[in-house]
Amino acid sequence: MIEIQISNDVQAWLPRELPSLENASVRHSWSAHAFAVDSHECLAVLERNSGYVMLFFDLNKRDYQNFSRVWQLRLLTEAIAVADLQDEEIDALKKNMLADFQNVLVTDGVNHPVAPQLDKLKNLVQVMAKREGKVPSQQMDEFRWGVILNDYAQRQNGLSPYQKMQSQWQAMAATAQFHQVSAQSSSTKLLH
Known about the structure:
Nucleotidyltransferase, domain 5, five-stranded mixed β-sheet, alpha/beta, single chain, 192 residues
């Protein structure tokens, strides 16, 4: 299960999606935070363990109503791009992530400290907007800004958030690919 914790400044815009919590365990925890960049609205979604951030600018009402789907598609796209995988590994990663996407829990409130990271992020986004003279208007540019921010962000244990998520997504692909190969070889053995 994937959990997205929404901060107080975002709660009014996002619908609650509450899947069955029976036998559920949260594999990935993200938090969503909104802030202004000049006259634009930025929604930053941060992964709890790595500090990886995804940026969304000027989402419309429909985007917010379908946010979990908008976010899932972006997450899958970013994972494939960041993980730098071969075709068969990409297929394995997609299957693994799509299985995770079956249950997305959107909850009110953030239960872990993010203020220092969020303040730093806001400042960096403001600097980038000033340097470029605009904010991203397309997903590809939002992703490019995210890559810059994730690679520039504070490194823990020598790894940036970008590198941490790259490793995580590569490991997910390898595990999923191993399970696929194991399942195929088991079914082949049963047939002989």
